[in-house]
């Protein structure tokens, strides 16, 4: 278990009981795309911080072993987990995730919209199907899932936190990502507007903007050693990101540590974005 800063400052130890303070104790957290990569690291850190977790994934049979393993790891931490396999682009998937959280954990406190795809492709011959699949998976499904989570939080009447995993790509272009970058800018914009729409219910909405993080999503792209080294050399902290690098920032935005943060964007990129010259 990671010692953490106490919400009141200090060492992270509750002085009376000398136990680590957990930032998400008994919270019910939904994370989409949690079978692998950033979502998986976030699910584990949320569990370490005391949360029970609904694991969203595509529903593909090949993902099931990874999901079972994650459930076992969360249970070994003394927390509970369940999984919902359903396509992120389906407008009803958000309802299914929320239903699972209500049934198993009594409600929804945190919703992390993380599922996403980035099938690199040139612009001029972009197949219509690939464009539509990318926008549906990354953005359209997210809209309905955020709406479902927000309605549940409103019904509960105790506020909540919504985090969209956007990207540095919301701020910069990518010649092979013309279908992808608009979805990430869209998620950032969705969080800004939802922060206004949902603030009156105590529901905070923020965007997380990872830089280049080594996961399955870019395994092929970064297999090009020259590109990989170039990307690392553009990063002031001297290396590409790891899924774990995003887990802390996600917990921060999910927890009361960020109780006055809404409509914000948190860039977690090792400094890549500011490294122009
Ligand atoms: N890695 C990076 O450099 C960056 C990533 N991001 C964003 O972070 C998020 C997570 O990416 P990352 O961890 O790298 O990716 P991974 O490829 O490692 O994981 C993707 C996750 O999304 C799920 N997923 C994929 N397609 C669908 C679908 N159609 N329906 C439901 N779930 C689906 C996968 O489930 P399954 O296992 O079932 O396929 C998996 O859990 C994405 O939104 C990505 O755009 C943002 C900036 C940088
Ligand atoms: C998948 C890419 O490597 C990754 O995705 C993003 O959102 C980043 O901007 C990188 O391009």
UniProtKB/TrEMBL annotation:
This is Beta-ketoacyl-ACP reductase. Belongs to the short-chain dehydrogenases/reductases (SDR) family. The keyword Oxidoreductase applies. It comes from the Bacteria. Keywords: Oxidoreductase. PANTHER family: (3R)-3-HYDROXYACYL-COA DEHYDROGENASE, SHORT-CHAIN DEHYDROGENASES/REDUCTASES FAMILY MEMBER. InterPro entries: NAD(P)-bd_dom_sf (IPR036291), SDR_fam (IPR002347). The keyword Oxidoreductase applies.
């Amino acid at each position: 278990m990671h010692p953490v800063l106490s919400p009141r400052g200090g060492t992270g130890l509750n002085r009376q009981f000398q136990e680590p303070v957990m930032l998400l104790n008994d919270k019910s957290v939904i994370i989409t795309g949690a079978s692998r990569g950033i979502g998986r690291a976030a699910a584990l850190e949320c569990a370490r911080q005391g949360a029970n977790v609904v694991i969203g994934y595509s529903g593909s049979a090949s993902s099931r072993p990874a999901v079972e393993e994650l459930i076992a790891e969360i249970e070994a931490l003394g927390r509970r987990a369940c999984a919902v396999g359903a396509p992120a682009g389906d407008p009803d998937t958000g309802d299914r995730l929320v239903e699972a959280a209500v049934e198993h954990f009594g409600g929804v406190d945190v919703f992390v919209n993380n599922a996403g795809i980035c099938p690199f492709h040139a612009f001029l011959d972009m197949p219509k199907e690939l464009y539509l699949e990318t926008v549906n998976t990354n953005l359209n499904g997210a809209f309905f899932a955020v709406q479902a989570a927000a309605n549940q939080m409103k019904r509960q009447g105790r506020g909540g936190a919504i985090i969209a995993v956007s990207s540095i790509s919301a701020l910069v272009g990518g010649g092979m990502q013309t279908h992808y970058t608009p979805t990430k800018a869209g998620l950032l914009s969705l969080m800004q507007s939802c922060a206004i729409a949902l603030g009156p219910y105590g529901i905070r909405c923020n965007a997380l903007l990872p830089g280049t993080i080594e996961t399955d999503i870019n395994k092929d792209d970064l297999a090009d050693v020259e590109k990989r080294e170039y990307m690392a050399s553009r990063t002031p902290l001297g290396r590409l990101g790891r899924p774990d690098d995003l887990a802390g920032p996600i917990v921060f935005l999910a927890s009361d540590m960020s109780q006055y943060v809404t409509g914000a964007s948190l860039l977690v990129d090792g400094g890549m974005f500011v490294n122009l010259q």
